[in-house]
Design brief:
By secondary structure, the protein is mainly alpha-helical. It contains 20 helices and no strands. The protein binds magnesium ion. Magnesium ion binds next to loops.
């Protein structure tokens, strides 16, 4: 790959260096001088159609429920933002980490986790469906933008970061990329960081969205240590502050504290493990990017609260149940009669079925549904099942 001494020189020895990259699956000439290989990865992700569709995909609240809630797109941007600031503090490769963060949810179905669970259920006999693996499938195969290859042909390091978890069965089929799951090795620090930044982003923005939606109150959140501490501080510093500003002050202090803790703790772990390069990071006993025990426990407490009080709130469940029905019925219609698929997807279904039988047909249908935005899935469902809806 192209070697840029300048870009690598600013990095810590244990960061991902372009000069040590394992490269791309399809050989390509190096990018023009102003751009590095990982910047090229990031730019390809931003220009992909899967990335643009994230704007109309649910994070927790279904897209049409309100304009102020997070979507998959704004979530991905927040993850990247948090991760980039930590990269700077630890001298990690910011361009690579940003690329991983922006791509981490590309494989998400419409309607968030509810959609993924429904699609996994539909695909049970045909190899299952897992959004994280699907993100990799999007960048490796499904994007159609380049003359010489399918997918985005990203670097190994970017693909390594996108694949956060993987079953042994799937890992065995993924060759070099899957090997670490079988050998219990770690991914790069940039990959580890993207993973933790994801959790920081959703834990905090779901507090904000949950309050905005009226699913929880600041009083109930008072039982959560991380929130309670900062809420008390904001009340002390700014008595009588309006509720919206108060919530933002609390959330930004929560993020600040966990990010600072993450930087300090990770620095300490790196100092102890003293990895000489990224290969030493991969060979370490466990992840080096981590919170202190206290903050890890508080973060888990917050996550538990959100699971019980927000994600399982009847208003969220009511919407997600509807969404699961939409996904199941879309799958059923296309799978039972592939003639209902648009031409290009029907052709893919025919091709995959010729190679892998009904599992191939299922995969083509799952790829099509996973690529849908919330609103497209709802419209398509109505076109299939409601005779009064005009056929567009
Ligand atoms: Mg995410």
């Amino acid at each position: 790959m192209s070697v840029s001494p300048d870009r690598d020189a600013a990095l810590a020895p244990y960061a991902c260096h372009e000069s040590q990259s394992r490269g791309r699956q399809h050989r390509e000439p190096p990018p023009a001088g102003h751009r590095g290989e990982y910047q090229r990865d990031r730019d390809r992700i931003v220009h992909s159609s899967a990335f643009r569709r994230l704007v109309y995909k649910t994070q927790v609240f279904v897209n049409h429920e309100g304009d102020l809630y997070r979507t998959r797109l704004t979530h991905s941007l927040e993850v990247a933002q948090i991760a980039r600031s930590v990269c700077g503090a630890l001298q990690l490769n910011e361009a690579l980490c940003e690329a991983i963060c922006l791509a981490h949810d590309l494989g998400h179905t419409p309607f968030g986790h509810a959609g993924q669970d429904a699609l996994n259920e539909c695909m049970r006999e045909y190899g299952g469906f897992e959004h994280n693996l699907q993100s990799l499938r999007v960048v490796d195969e499904l994007e159609e933008r380049y003359a010489e290859f399918s997918g985005l042909n990203l670097t190994f390091e970017c693909r390594e970061g996108i694949l956060k978890h993987c079953s042994a069965k799937n890992a065995a089929e993924l060759g070099e990329l899957g090997r670490r799951f079988l050998e219990r090795r770690q991914p790069s620090l940039e990959a580890q960081l993207a993973n933790v930044a994801d959790a920081i982003a959703y834990n905090n923005h779901d507090v904000d969205d949950g309050l905005r939606a009226g699913l929880v109150t600041t009083r109930e959140l008072g039982g959560v240590a991380l929130f309670a501490r900062h809420h008390a501080e904001v009340e002390r510093l700014y008595p009588g502050l309006g509720e919206r500003r108060q919530i933002h002050e609390v959330v930004r202090r929560m993020i600040n504290q966990v990010v600072n803790d993450l930087i300090q703790t990770t620095r300490g772990r790196i100092a102890v493990a003293a990895p000489i390069d990224v290969e030493a990071v991969r060979a370490a006993d466990g992840p080096l990017v981590a919170f202190s025990e206290r903050i890890a426990a508080e973060h888990r407490e917050l996550k538990r609260f959100l699971h019980e009080r927000v994600y399982r709130h009847f208003r969220v469940v009511r919407m997600t149940t509807k969404a699961q029905r939409v996904v199941r019925e879309l799958f059923r219609a296309y799978f039972d009669d592939p003639r209902l698929l648009p031409d290009e997807h029907r052709e893919v279904a025919t091709r995959l079925e010729a190679g892998a039988g009904l599992a191939g047909r299922g995969r083509a249908v799952a790829d099509y549904i996973a690529g849908m935005t919330d609103r497209y899935a709802i419209l398509e469902h109505a076109r299939l099942y409601d005779p009064s809806v005009p056929q567009g």
